[in-house]
Amino acid sequence: MTNKEFSLFRKLLYSEYGIYFDDSKKGILKIKVDKLLRMNNMNSYRDYYELLKNPIEKQHLIDFLNIMTVNKTHFFREQNHFDFIKENLSEILQKNPMILKEKKIRVWSSASSTGEEAYSIAILLNEIMPKDIEIKILGTDISQRALKIAIKGRYSPIIKKQIPKYYLHKYFVKIGEEYIVKSNLKKMVQFRGFNLKDKFPFKNGIDIIFCRNVMIYFDEIFKEELINKFYKITPKGGLLFIGHSETIRNLKHKYKYIKPTIYIR
Q1: Shortest CA distance to 254 belongs to which of 219, 218, 229, 217?
Q2: What proportions of the chain, in percent to the nearest 5, are helix, strand and coil?
Q3: Is residue 18 part of a domain?
Q4: How many domains, the chain?
Q5: Which residues pair with 262 in a beta bridge?
Q6: Measured between alpha carbons, how far is 189 from 150 in angstroms, rounded to an integer?
Q7: What is the pLDDT of residue 20?
Q8: Is 15 within a domain?
Q9: Cα dihedral value 20, 23, 27, 28, nearest 10
């Protein structure tokens, strides 16, 4: 792969999804593109690039995206975020009074991958929120492959190591070797495809935003743009959680720092 070919693929990823591969990641991108070439019985980087640019061949662009990103996640990942909500619920409701006034809490899992994060949020809130508060959780991702898994809500036995036994029995049913999300939990969560580069479609504010372990793919310009888009839809007292390997402290924004990876409007 020449530097020019690398530049073409890099610009395509950035223009379509905001994902940025710097020069040090050329080798990684080449390995991933080589795999896609073999899958499509092709041997020309330029021909494959032209295929990706063809608006009729959208599935190839989706496959390209899927292999460039990692959908690694698990239930209750970065547990301290869930602990923070549980331990500070009274203060959260006090600082964001619209939740109690509207009797509704809105949460956005903005890079929900295969659904574990969104369902974990649903479990937590169902356990700790006042019972008259409606819980509405939106899980979005650009990977249609990941979203299909999230919508099905069917998980392997490995989740036994991730979820407390009480929650496992309360919110999942075991069929064969799989654990399937029960309908009482599923009804709290809606999944849809969404590109964080696109204009946000929300008519109402989002009380809690989870944007974890996705900004590692973005450059500083897009990260700053994204954080400020989040801020505009966050009501006073609303929260933002980011991944432990990420930081926004060097970006220009109006969120107030609470503690590492946790911010408030």
Answers
A1: 229
A2: 50, 15, 35
A3: yes
A4: 2
A5: 241, 259
A6: 10
A7: 87
A8: yes
A9: -20
Does one domain contain both 83 and 153?
A: yes
Domain boundary among the residues 39, 68, 97 is at: 68
Q: How far is residue 107's CA from residue 207's CA, in Å, rounded to a whole number?
A: 6
The SS3 of residue 111 is: coil
113-157: pLDDT as tens digits: 999 999 999 999 999 999 999 999 999 998 888 999 999 999 999
> Is 227 inside any structural domain?
yes
pLDDT-based confidence at residue 110 (cuts at 50, 70, 90): very high
Q: Is 56 exposed, middle or buried (0-12, 13-18, 19+ CB in 10 A)?
A: exposed
Residue 46's domain comprises 3-68
Both 28 and 92 in a single domain?
no
Q: Confidence class of residue 67 from pLDDT cuts 50, 70 and 90?
A: confident
Q: Which of 217, 226, 216 is nearest to 251 (CA)?
A: 226
| CB of 225 closer than 8 Å to CB of 197 | no
Detail the DSSP E strand segments found in 37-129.
Answer: 104-109
Give the CATH number for residue 182: 3.40.50.150
Rounded Cα distance between 210 and 110, Å, is: 6
User: What is the C-alpha to C-alpha distance for residues 206 and 231, in angstroms, rounded to an integer?
Assistant: 10
Are 133 and 97 in contact by the 8 Å Cβ rule? The answer is: no
Buried b (16+ CB within 10 A) or exposed e, 31-40: ebbeebeeee
